[in-house]
Fold:
Amino acid sequence: MNFAKFWTPPKSLAVFFATALVLFLTLILLWMPVSKWTSYPTAWLTHLTLEQGSRYWVRTVHTEPGHIEVETRIAIKMAGNNPNQGVAELVVESDPSRYAYGLPLFLALMLASRGPKLPKKALMGYLILLVPQTFSTVLEILRQIVMAGGRAGALAADQWQLEAVAMGYQMGSLLVPTLAPVVLWLWLERSYFQTVIIGGWLPRNQELQNK
Structure:
């Protein structure tokens, strides 16, 4: 088998997307059993970010593979109809792998484009993707605190700060996990993108429009 021929980057956009889709589905299945370990650095970065950046809300953070528990300083009423029911400090939880599916997506795109220096770029991509994954996880935890804490006064925060958390959560949950690996792939494999997309698909599309 000619490995060099097999590793030649696909010149067809349809072949590239079909290959990327198959690889993504395969890598998702392989990633799920180990996601709590590959995402553990995200848990550590989330721990550091919350304890250093949200000290007024966050008392302490406990991390373990696949789980983050945040003990806050926010007092909430205990559930129940008893008027003498006391209050307790809010505890929120999150899974650091929840927004980490961008890793198999990134690897699928890298393998589909078959660029040079793949191991080095894959490792670089893994490390860089920890940043947007941490962003999404931190905002998801802050959103839980805001939702449970209630009024801005109870949280000792301005309204614009609560709105910023809400907007950041929307970006972190809907946009960042998917967009970050694609943008990173475009940056690392920009020569392939220029060759296949700009050099191949666009001229062909213009030719069809001229017919």
Summary: The chain has a mean pLDDT of 84. Residues 3-210 form one domain.
